[in-house]
Predict the 3D structure of the following.
Amino acid sequence: MHTEAADHFFNPRNVGDAGEPSFVGRAASLSCGAHVRFSIQVDEAQRVSEARFRAAGCDVLVAAASVLTERVTGLTTAQAAAIGQAPAELSDKLGAAGSEKCVEMACNALLDAIREYSNAARDDWAGDEALICTCFFVSERTIEREIQARALTTVAEVTNACNAGGGCGSCHQLIQEILETNDLPR
């Protein structure tokens, strides 16, 4: 284990629960019994204003969760989701060879918390257009325009065109439904 990983294990940062209102994500392993819980607060600018965790598991899981809380605080939810989608990078930084699943578990809990935020933000959206991607604030009309203008047929193509779906991924199903249900002229 690298020095930074050991420091984060023996002196974990941001242990506990984020203040209310918070969004919670969880991940667990049936094979070893480890589990991790992430809670985040998101401010008006869609930035993670507070990130905290609770974990029961190995040193790598605790260190990864601790590092993640420090890395994502102050970032937009889209930026935080990008970090959560790169467990291999964090695993390399921590020197967690052989324990990649533990790092992945911490990342999955973070992504789950961001998805909970995204679902709540979609429910609370007061804009004129239906909000589909809360990480990048992309509306249904924008997605439909991109599909029509570029003859897009996949979620990945939509993401490349307008960033929708490029964060936590909670909108992938909604984008797929737009692709399937809108018989847009090409």
The longest strand covers residues 48-56. The chain has two domains: 3-123, 125-181. The chain has a mean pLDDT of 91.
